[in-house]
Structure formats: structure tokens, C-alpha cells
Amino acid sequence: MKVICTEQSQVLATRVARALKTTVVDVKYSRFPDGEHYLLTGEIDDEMVIVGSVVDSDSLIQLMLLVDACDRATNRLVLPYMAYARQDKRFRPGEPVSSRVIARALSQGISEVITVNIHEKEILKSFSVPAGNLSLAKDIGSFIKTLKLDNPLILAPDEGAVVFAEQVASAGGWEYDHLEKTRLSGVEVKMAPRQLSAKKRSVVIVDDIISTGGTIATAAGMLYQQGAKDVFTACVHGVFTGGAYVRLMATGIRDVACSDTIERGCSRISAADQIARAIRKQ
Ligand code: R5P
């Protein structure tokens, strides 16, 4: 068994390979003069683990080319982050179900797929091969332990993420809650924990994705107003679109951490061990 990866997932793929005690196949990536992607792989094995997050259109094309280049092998696809997953419904007539489009496109040439904290588990049914999903909630919990906070309060930014917050909190036996938004007027919104007070406490807001960071930035400001001692945030997928990381830090958030499903400077939680365990089990 060997590992191979797209350019955007080199660090995670190397960690997965180490955990599996194997190597990463060298790939030369380049472009044709018109901008089309080209790649050339080194020697592949009969059994390949292909690691590639879809973070944009280029990484999707590169991943599809990589799968095709490995077509003499048994291919397992590890899709740590899947862009387009949030358009998982036709919210308005005329819209595509984008998650389905990506899942179908990536089902070609592979025998199974592993995702990590996919936005909605229903999306797994859109792959035409067996698909499983891993959760990094426990790993985020272990990371929070390293911050050595005194009795932290784990907060989900909304009710939809409360199960995730509960799983994170179970790593340290901490209290958890979710933020509730109350509209005070046409322009004023208040966000506060639904049941517990943030006063004088270290609060860690946890979520699957930080994209624009808008929700967490607003929440952090309000939690400080409510007397929180410190606010931290940790997520699985650090998309940080349009300067989100800078904006989050500017609110006074002490630390913003994410995993290596998208490789960032603040990727301090790794999905590698869980991915390797899932592959060994198959
Ligand atoms: C929503 O379903 C997700 O769990 C995130 O809360 C959301 O995508 C975060 O978006 P943003 O960072 O743009 O507020």
C-alpha cells in the first residue's frame, strides 16, 4: 500500500503514510501553457490511498486526474474536506445540488471514500461507492486539553453544532452549551449561551467549519461583553475565506486553531491517526 496526494494535502498525506508505515508517491504537478493541469506520478502500488481535500476547483481537477493516473490500482479516496458540501439541497428552484455533483464526479475509479466531518452525512449517499465519515470532535477535545484552561465552557455557535460540542466537551468532562441569537431590533442582535453564563470563564467556541468567521467573530465580541475571561476557537475545517483569520484575531480571540484537513498555519489538530486507523480496519 502507498499513499499519493494532491498539492493541497501534502502534509496530511505524509502524516497518514507515516501512521500506515508506508511512503508517499512522488508526483510532478505542472500546467500546460493554457493553464490546464498536468501531473505525472512515480511508481504506484496495487493498493493506493489517495488523499486530497477539495478546497477549490483546481484541487478538484487535480484530484480527479490523480485518481485516473492510479487506475491500475485499488484506490481508496480520503477526502478530508469537501468544498460544495454546504449546497446539499436545492434551496431554490434552478439551483444545483452541488454536493451531489462533486460526490458523483469523485466516485469514478475508486473503491471507497472516507470523509472527515462532512457538512451533512446524507451527502455520503451521493457517492456510488461505500462512503464513511470520521469525526475529529475527540481530537479537538484533546487539543483543548493542551491549552490547560481552567474549567472551560465549550460552546457551539448554533443548535445544529451542539452534538459536536458535546463530543468535544466529553474529552475533558467539561460543560457545553450552544449560542442563541435573539433579535433585539431591526439592526441589533444578541448572542449568548442558551443556559450557562460565560462570565469569568474561558470559553472555547467549536465548529466543523470556519468560513467567513462572521458568526464566531460576532459571538466572541458578545461573550467578552458578557464578562468572558478568554475566548478561544477551534474547528475542523479552517476555510478562513476573505481574511477571516485576521478578523477573528482582531476581536480579541486568544487562539484560533483548525485541523490539517485544510493545511493552514494554524492547523494544530491532525486527522492523520484517525484516517490511518480507518484504513487499517478496512
Ligand atoms: C454551518 O452549518 C457551519 O457549521 C458553520 O457554522 C458555518 O459554515 C460557518 O460559517 P461562517 O464562518 O461563514 O460564519
Q: State the domain count.
A: 2
Return the CATH class of the largest domain.
Alpha Beta
- Rounded to an integer in angstroms, the radius of gyration calculated over CA atoms is 20 Å
The main sheet orders its strands as 10-9-8-11-12-13-14
Any idea what the CATH architecture of the largest domain is? 3-Layer(aba) Sandwich
Q: Summarize model confidence as the mean pLDDT.
A: 96
Task: Summarize the biggest pleated sheet.
Answer: 7 strands, mixed
Going by helix content, strand content and strand pairing, the class is: alpha/beta
Q: Would you list the SSEs in sequence order as H and E?
A: EHEEEHEHEEHEHEEEHEHEEH
List segments where confidence is low: pLDDT < 50 over at least 5 consecutive residues. none
Bound molecules: ribose-5-phosphate
Separation of termini? 13 Å
Question: Would you write up a description of this structure?
Answer:
With 282 residues, the protein is an alpha/beta fold. It folds into two domains: 2-135 and 271-280, 3-Layer(aba) Sandwich (Rossmann fold); 137-260, Rossmann fold, CATH 3.40.50.2020. 28% of the residues lie in helices and 28% in strands. The protein has helices spanning 10-19, 57-69, 98-105, 137-146, 162-170, 214-225, 244-250, 272-281; strands at 2-5, 27-31, 37-41, 47-51, 74-79, 112-116, 131-134, 153-156, 175-183, 189-193, 202-210, 230-238, 255-259, 267-269. The strands form three sheets. The protein has a seven-stranded mixed β-sheet. A five-stranded parallel β-sheet has the order 1-4-5-6-7, sandwiched between helices. Helix 4 packs across helix 5. 43% of the residues are buried. The structure holds ribose-5-phosphate (R5P). Ribose-5-phosphate (R5P) binds at residues 157, 160-161, 207-215.
